[in-house]
Amino acid sequence: MIKQRKHSAIALFSGGLDSILAVKWMQKLGYTVYSVFFSTPYLTPDKALKSARANGIELIVRDITDEHLKIVQNPKYGYGKNHNPCIDCRALMFQLAGKMLDELGASFIISGEVLGQRPMSQRFQALMQVSKGSEMKDLIVRPLSQKLLPDSKPILEGWVNKDEMLDLQGRGRTRQMELAQQLGVIEYPSPGGGCLLTDISFTLRLRDLINHGQDNPLQIELLKWGRHFRLSPTLKLIVGRHKNDNFGLDQAAKDLPRLQIRDVPGPLGVLTASDATQEELSLAASILLSYCNKAPDPGAVIYSIDSIESSQIMAHKRSKDSLAQYIISIE
Ligand code: SF4
To answer: Which domain covers residue 82, as residue numbers?
Structure first.
């Protein structure tokens, strides 16, 4: 019979094995755990929801796009290998979880961080920076490694018994696998991946947006699809690479001007502003034609706004080499 504990916790839940184990371990000890996933344009909740469902974990999803945009632009602790401000990001998540404590009637915050597992965000010093940056340092418990970490208030006050915490560390996964078996965790995603800020191609596009002061939620959403071409400081063309891109662009860019090749099935083109000059429209049409083998040369491109044809542009295809000066992401 599990003894129900007086104090409950909010868990930062990513959907990965470590966060599942942290939640399950605390539940096994008798704590009520509220699992929260913080959603951003770079990391959507789909995988976490699936993983939570598979493991019988009820998940609260909160969108933190606005708060997250600020740290992506100017992180106090810098970036990882790409544009991933992991320390600031983790600190923000703890901070926001801290703000939910009263709402959920919880007393402290847990996470599945494992000392020394990730080079940037889980070194001892990084974990301490995360705690400090979150302003919730006193209320954080990391059940998988807490035996190796400084005591926080839940330990000092006896809400959590340190002896019941674990001492996992390093990059090996053997102990996690054993623990998963012990706790009956059988379904979990493979480690890593998921966050677009760790993706080199996405990062290049995002940096371009930031450099041009256009890093708003819609423009960031559009980075997920197609090839991106910068035509001027205020204008980009996005060209779908396949059906999936065309569909994604169509859904995300409902209010933006479109380019489509007349009478030939081909890529969807989206312009990120509606004030393109005639010269920019010709350039955009020629780029679009260049990515459609079936299109004639010269070809006719329809420019439409709100699904209403506004004009037709005749343009020539260009060589792929001549497009290199406009393309933002690497292929
Ligand atoms: S990988 Fe992405 S979501 Fe994860 S901590 Fe880093 S920036 Fe945040």
So the answer is: 9-195
